[in-house]
Amino acid sequence: MARSKQPSVQAGRRSVLLAASAAAALPLARPAIAQERKLVVGVVLPLSGTFADQGRNNEEGIKTFQKIHGTKVGNVTVETVMRDDQGPGSGDLSRRLTQELIQRSRAEIILGYSFTPNALSAASLLTEAKKPGIIINAATSIITERSPYFARVSMTLPQLASSLGQWAARNGIKTVFTIVSDYGPGLDAETWFTKAFEAGGGKVVGGARTPVAAMDYSPFLQRAIEAKPEAVFGFNPGGDVSVAFMKQTKERGLSQAGIKLLVTGDVVDDNLIPAMGDALDGVISALHYQVELDNPANRRFLAGFREVAGANATPSYRTVQAYDGMALIYHALQATGGKTDADSIMNAIKGARIDSPRGPFTIDPATRDIVQNIYIRRGQQKDGRWANIAFETIEGVKDPAK
Amino acid sequence: MRLIRIGAGLPLLLAAVASFFLFPEYLSLLNTLFILAIFALAYDLLQGHAGVVSLGHAVFFGMGAYTAAVLAAHGVTEPVVGLLAALLLSGLLALLLTRIVVVGNDLTRLLVTLGIGFLMLEAANQARWLTGGADGMSDFTMGPVLGLFRFDFAGETAFWYSLAALVLVYAFLWRLTTSPFGLALRGIRENVRRMPAIGAPVRRHLATAYTISGGIAGLAGALLAQTSNFASLDMLGFERSAEVMMMATLGGTGSIPGVVLGAVGFSYLKDALSAMSPKYWHLGIGLVLMLSVFVLRGGIAGGVSALLRRLRGRG
Amino acid sequence: MSGLISILADGIAYGMLLFLFSIGLSVTLGLMRFINLAHGAFAMCGGYVAVVLLNGFGVPFLLTLPAAAVVTGLIGVVLERSVIRHVYPMPELQQVLFSIGLAFAAGAVANILFGPQQQPMLLPDWLTARVSLLGVGITGYRLFLVLFGLVAAGLLVALFNFTLFGARVRAAVDDRRAAEGIGINVDRLFALTFGLGAAFAGLGGALAVGFLGLDPTFPFKYLVLVLMVVAIGGPGSIGGSFAAAIAIGAIDALFKYLVPEVGNYVIYALLVLMMIFFPRGLAGRAA
Q1: ∠ CA B225-B229-B232 to the nearest 5 degrees?
Q2: pTM of the model
């Protein structure tokens, strides 16, 4: 991703210093008695198997944050211990790893949880152990209601799907055919897109629910084309499945049939674009982050990310989510003056406002869920490469499901 | 040979009890190891004793897990009741499936059980109202065991609870496989054609073995659901089915202590390697599996008895 | 109606890939009685060879295909000669353990070398264009897959039925001892056949990247489907595997299109029924 406006590493470092001095200026940052200590952040992510790529994106976000902001907050040194929960559905494992991180590694905060079941299964454990759990990916609305010690810095699917539904209705699209993966998040996406779209006057004329690991989408796309909608709404779980879906929408000639493609933005994650190529052309999506965002925090983030992951690497939105998870922890440590008990941390997290690479976000004090900008983007070429370019920003979107 | 089998149970039990005091921070891992040992024992009653292979045994494990979880979610929170219900329902499911899972040759059996596994997975995914679908079930709270012992954070209750179940299953299967019924199963394994000729009811024996095996696998699943407060589609998936086959084979199929060691050893190795290198531990597991077939012919049990033979030969 | 036919054509193209993935496993199972659950690793290997050549060295797509087949075939022969042949005499379950281990290790090596992400492969434009054939629209690439699969199957059938090599292989399948008795070098035959199976998997892998994607979990991703093809087709039967692969691809696509509510179950239900009523597969030969 060579870009003309890429900030130099020096500039990145300088802004780190600025940020650090700004942090030092906070009145709470100096506790009465300075005592050096260590805080272990336990990290539970899918680091092997089918979803290892997601886990690696998250991991790089964590590393990028510590590269830019260092490992010390005041007198607290922040250390991470990583464990592999192997992917979705292994809630029993994710719960055990959470327990082991707390008991064996003395973790005081848990960061991670890529998948809904893996977060849900740890909920009661975190409540019992009184340890904050920062969710950096799992997107089902209900999770944060299951433990008062959960906070989420990623997104909820209803946030994306309903923003997209509203946009579609506002922009003169009358009929939509939905294609979603047949599991919890897919149904969430279908429900919330439909709700928002039909509230705006549109009509969902049909839908298909596809196997979660489907690689051949042509039967479903054919049905969609035959239903003659003005647009297709798609959601699937990312990775190879989303690449296959996107490529086949092009092969099947969705746009030749005059049908627009709308997807939740995770389907066209920035780091999947090279594998999708021109299948991205004209695709409308809704997401909370894209590489092209132009703000100081994002420039700093991208510079740090390229130091960690290589000059040609492209971050995923998940990289930013993990980065922000660490930002939230650092923010809380500053606000508590180094106190690490769960209630102090949670109090500092509630209502926190962070200047993230994705733009400013806050944590809703009532639900501990994220309130953030959702960008409506269009797939188009920029400097000879395909990219998601935002053309509309919906500010301060709360999770509509709560 | 027989003496070795009787003898192996006691040291294993002592080692298990000692681990409670030696590794107080590893109790939840040990709990998982005990549960997987039960599952592997259940599976090996088929593979090792009756000679019937399967790539879908997690169906019963998952059935047990969901039974326990659904009961708890509907107010039946006493764990032992949940275990018994899981044992019965999974056993019943196994009984219903016996007729079609023992047809044909090994390859046929593998594929039939594999197909059934996928069908059950889809069914459980569709029955979202009951199973929670892909999100799994975690919205339930287990009561104290026998009304006395609450499941605690460190996993002490879970440790003793699962160990007790393992001891019972171990003793039961040991008795069963050394009984005339067990010998008949071995006969079926060795020569499936001749058994009917000597008047053995092969079908009924296999149905009985399948039912018992399915029931115990369900018990293991229920233990996991209860002690981890979670049930999911994953528990009845193909990977778990393949893994139990690997554990039994690695331990030494047909040997009860061997299978226990196989399950415990394999699962511990997985955990240790994945803690060491969360990203690349598959390489270690792969190499160990490949080496094992050269180093431990006949699995851990085979390796141990070869060692014993050699020692005795020298003495 | 044209929608239906076009879906069928897509399903058949998918089936062709399954055929290429599974033919090697079918032959090694039929010939060496070796249960090679790591067969998917060869397909993955072919995929990476093609991606590296295409993206790294700018080799044209069509040239990457034979390269993938040759490199994977050679790796297959080397592995067979060095390690795998020692596994042939082992009991089946030990073979399962070994080959699962091999698949794990292969995936991990790919992860270390290439990372866990999807490998991008953008096909040349002439392949992604949509063409109309007798009024039915089909993607150029799928048409290409169908033609390629037909040629490959034809070549294999010819090789096994009309050449001396094929006659030797068939003789060894039927009775290994007798074949050795009449002077056939069975060891070399095994190595060549194994390499051939690996090469076809590698070719399938290279062809699959543009369609199914490529990442280090590839060895396990299609294992279940490949096993289905082999069992339904009957181990060791080229024609059987071909028919089974095409049938699975077509039936799967058809049901997903016609009755999407149950479309995901159908192939598994079919598998169970097939195995109960035809336990020896389409070709009717015992494993």
Answers
A1: 55
A2: 0.91
